[in-house]
Amino acid sequence: MAIIGALLAVVVCLSLLLVLGAIIRFSLVGAARTKGWQARLRKPQRSEVEAKWHVKLPESLETYFRGEIVARSNFYLAPPGSKESEWWYVERFVPLTCRDLSEWRAATAVPGLPIAIDGSKGTYYIPFEALRRHLSFPILLRLPGRKREDKSVATSFEEFMQFEPREVPADE
Questions:
Q1: How far apart are CA 90 and CA 106, in angstroms?
Q2: Would you tell me how many other CB atoms lie within 10 Å of the CB of residue 165?
Q3: Is there a smaller number of Cβ atoms within 10 Å at the N or the C end of the chain?
């Protein structure tokens, strides 16, 4: 019985150390690594990102990240002519730099390049599979939770670029 108790104590201690390590990694270290992200937001590093992940990004992605919309936060992106129920909430965009993308990939584990977060721990991303095959570049939203479910936001980045910013309604 004493051996089982000792093993259980070791397992509990190791589990607590892992949790503490994750907290430190993603709260303190992650915050330090992404410090100054706002300054990098509208300075995309497309060629560096392409080289690191061996993908080809659309030029329109770089143009989009140089625009005003990526500096916005806490708003909706609405497909043209859509109802409010079809709008997509964006808390903020992720800078298109190796430093920021690496950190967000580590934190979210999305199988692609994260471009924005939704405030509910969901991540908008472009899947690596499409980028490496030079297919159309869909935008997906990886929902939080154990299922890791993806929702299709736009079938192509060009379609996503047509979404219009909308303010958060006053009743929210």
A1: 20
A2: 13
A3: N
